[in-house]
Amino acid sequence: MLFFVVLQRFQHKNNVGEVNIKEVSIEDMVLWLSSKLHSAHKLSFFELSAELTTVDELISLFLAILELCRNQKIKVYQESDFEDLVIESLVA
């Protein structure tokens, strides 16, 4: 549900017929997210996605979150059903 809401926001941002060539690798997004978590320790998925401009960046962010979870660098949870995702650093 949350991902759908965020995705809807991107459909309103992009102009019809606009071509975007900007590519963001998952590794770049892992570094960006790690940097954000270093200063904040806890972040909102919704707020993070507001800083992105393309659907490709959004997908890279989501995959970066999964990668950091797999490596046990972060934990992701929701306060309640259908709420924002909270991303919390597990690295001191």
TrEMBL record:
Q: Which InterPro entries match?
A: ScpA, ScpA-like_C
Protein name per Swiss-Prot or TrEMBL: Segregation and condensation protein A
Q: From which organism does this entry originate?
A: Lactobacillus iners LactinV 01V1-a
